[in-house]
Amino acid sequence: MTDTTSGIKMTAGTRLYLYASLSLVACLVLVPLMTTALGGFKSLGDLRVNPFGLPHQWVWSNYTDILFGERYWRQMGNSLLIAVISVFLTVVVSAMAAFTFAHVKFFGSAQLMNYFLIGLMFPVATAILPLFIRIRDLGLLDSYWGVILPQVAFGLGMSILLFRNYFRNLPDELFQAAFVDGCGYIRFFWYVSLPLSRPIVATVSIVTFVNSWNSYILPLIMLNTETKYPWPLGIMVYRGEFGTEWQLVLAFITLTILPTVIVFFLAQKHIIAGLTAGAVKS
Amino acid sequence: MASVELKDVRKAYGALEVIHGVSLSIADGEFIALVGPSGCGKSTLLRMIAGLEDISHGEVVIGGNVVNALTPRERNIAMVFQSYALYPHMTVAENMGFNLKLSGVAKADIEKRVAEAARMLALGDLLDRKPSQLSGGQRQRVAMGRAIVRDPAVFLFDEPLSNLDAKLRVAMRTEIKTLHQKVGTTSVYVTHDQIEAMTLADRIVVLNGGNIEQVGTPLDLYRTPANLFVAGFIGSPAMNFLDADVDAENGQPAARLADGTIVRLDLARQVKRGQAVKLGIRPEHFVAGDTGDTVVGGQTLVVEPTGAQTHVVFTLAGEPVTAVVDGAFPARHGMPFQAAVAAQQVHVFDRGTGLSL
C-alpha cells in the first residue's frame, strides 16, 4: 500500500522489517487491552494461573452483573457529566484566550502566555493540598464543580498552546479581508477563526475528555458521597479487606474504557490533523 | 464612487520612515496603478488608503472626508488581495455576501446583489462551490465579486494577478479592465509588473524607496521619463544606458561614448559641452541597418527570438546593448550588427542627479 500511495519503492527486506516492527508495536498496545478484556471473562482462580491465555470457562456474569447493576450506569453518568462540562469550558476559555494571544498585541502578552505555559509543568498531584484547601474555602467540596474547575484550569496550558499555534497559522490576509468586510475581532473569531478550527477543537476536546474520563486523584480528594463518584473511584468497591476481585475490576475497566476507545477511533483523523496542523502548508 | 487624495502621507515604523511624504490626488472614477520594485512602499501606501496600516503623518481623504481614524468598513473601500483571501469554509455565494450579511442587509437583497455580481463575472454556476474547488482564475473572480457586490467608494487591488500563470494573467487583466469600464469605480492597483500598469491604468505612479518618482499617463512615462529610475523601470525590454560626455559635431549637440562613438542628440536637450551624462536608448528604437542620425554597431552576443520580434544583444562601447528588430532579421551569434537610432529617440540624463535633460 505504501509504495502505491507515496511512490516510494521498497525492497522485500525493508518491507519485512516494516511489518515486523509495526506488528511488535501493535502487540505492545494490544496485549494489555486484550488481557484486560479477556481477564473479565475469567474466574479469579483462572486469572491467577492463566493471566494471558483464553479463559478455560467463559464467565459472562462478570460483565452482565456490572451492566445490569445501577452503580455502573450512575458512575458512567457522573464521569460523562464531569467530562462534558470540562470539555466545554476548556474549549471555550482556551480558544478565546488563544485567539487573543495570537491576534492582539498588548503589553505583557508574552509574559501572560508564559504564565499559562508554566501550568504545563505541574501535574494536579503536585498541587493537591493547596487545591483541596482552596476548593474547601470556595465551598465546592463534594460537588462536581470541585472536580471540573481544577481540571479546566490544569488543561488550559496545553489547550491554549494548541489553539494559539493553530490560529497563528491562519493567513494574515484572511484577517485583513474580514476586517475590510467589516469584522472586528469578535466577529472574526466567531465567523472565520472558529469554523476553520474544527480539527483543533476536536483535538483539544478529545484530549480533555480522555484526561477527565481517566482522572482519579481529583475526584478521590474532592468527592465524598458515593453517588457522585465517577467510574475510576468505582473500582475501589471491588477491593475487599482480604483480597481484590480482579476479574470484576478488569471487566469494569473494559466496560468503562470502551466508550473512549470508540470515540478515539471515530475522531482519530481529526486528532492527528489537529496535532500536526501547520507542520505542512496546505 | 469618490475621489481620493493623499496629503503629505508618511509612514514610519519607529525611527524608520518607509513612506516619505507622498501627495497624490486621484479623480473620481480614475484607474491608478502604483508601480515600483519590491520594497518601494507601494503595498504599504495601498494598505494605508485601505485602513489596514496606521498613518504616521498626513491625511488620506476619500470623497472629501478625512478618513485617517476610520476603519476599512467605514471608509467604504473594497480590497482584492494577492492570495485572494477567500474564506475557505464558505461557499462562493457566502463569500461574496459576507460583508452584506455583516452590515445587516436583508437576505433577499443579498441574494439579488450576489446574483447580479455573479452574472457580471460569469460565476453563476459556481455559487455553491467552496473556494478549494475553484481554479486560480475563478478564485480571483470571486475575490473581485466580493469587492463589487457592496458597491464601494474605492477599489483597492494588491498585486491581484501575481499568483496566476502568464496566460491567465493576461486574460484576467482584460477582465479587470472591462470590469472597471462597466462599473467605473475609482481604483488603485498595486503591481510590480509595469506591463500590467501600462495596460490597465489611466495614470501610473512610479514609486521608489518611499518617494514618488513620477506620475503620468502610461505614454507620458514611456516617452518622457523624468529620471533614470523611471526610464529604466518603464518599458520592456528595459532601456539601454550608456555613459557619455556631451560634445558637438557640425554645430549640433552630440555625445561621445567611451570608445569615441558619436551619438547625435536632439536640439531641444538642455546640455552643455563637456557635461557627464547617461544616454538612454530604448531597444525598440534601434533600426537595423545603416541609415539614420546615428549608426552604431558591434559584435552580436546573444540572439533571442520571440516570434514577431527578435532581441539582439550586441556590444556598444564595451557594454552589452539590446536592440529589438523584426523577427525576420537574420541575426546570428558572433556576427557584426549595425543599427541606427534617431536623434530625438535618444534620452539624455544627468549622470550626477539622474534627471532627464
UniProtKB/TrEMBL annotation, chain A:
Q: Which family does it belong to?
A: Belongs to the binding-protein-dependent transport system permease family.
State the compartments where it is located.
Answer: Cell membrane
Q: Which InterPro entries does this entry report, sorted A to Z? A: MetI-like (IPR000515), MetI-like_sf (IPR035906)
- Membrane topology field: Multi-pass membrane protein
Supply the source organism's classification.
Bacteria, Pseudomonadati, Pseudomonadota, Alphaproteobacteria, Hyphomicrobiales
Which controlled-vocabulary keywords does the entry list?
A: Cell membrane, Membrane, Transmembrane, Transmembrane helix, Transport
Q: What name appears for this protein in its UniProt entry?
A: Carbohydrate ABC transporter permease
Among CDD domains, the record links this protein to: TM_PBP2
Q: Which residues form the ABC transmembrane type-1 domain?
A: 76-267
Q: Does the keyword ATP-binding apply?
A: no
Q: Where are the transmembrane segments?
A: 16-41, 80-102, 114-133, 145-167, 188-210, 246-267
Does Cell membrane count among this protein's keywords?
A: yes
Which source organism? Rhizobium oryzicola
Superkingdom of the source species: Bacteria
A Pfam family the protein falls into: BPD_transp_1
TrEMBL record, chain B:
Q: Which PROSITE patterns match?
A: ABC_TRANSPORTER_1, ABC_TRANSPORTER_2
**What UniProt keywords are attached to this protein's entry?**
ATP-binding, Cell inner membrane, Cell membrane, Membrane, Nucleotide-binding, Transport
Q: SMART domains, alphabetically?
A: AAA
Query: Where does the record say this protein resides?
Result: Cell inner membrane
Q: Which GO terms describe its molecular function?
A: ATP binding
Tell me which residues make up the ABC transporter domain: 4-234
* Pfam families reported for this sequence: ABC_tran (PF00005), OB_MalK (PF17912)
- State the source organism's domain of life: Bacteria
Family membership: Belongs to the ABC transporter superfamily.
Q: What is this protein called?
A: Sn-glycerol-3-phosphate ABC transporter ATP-binding protein UgpC
Organism field: Rhizobium oryzicola
Q: What is the lineage of its organism?
A: Bacteria, Pseudomonadati, Pseudomonadota, Alphaproteobacteria, Hyphomicrobiales
Gene behind this protein:
ugpC
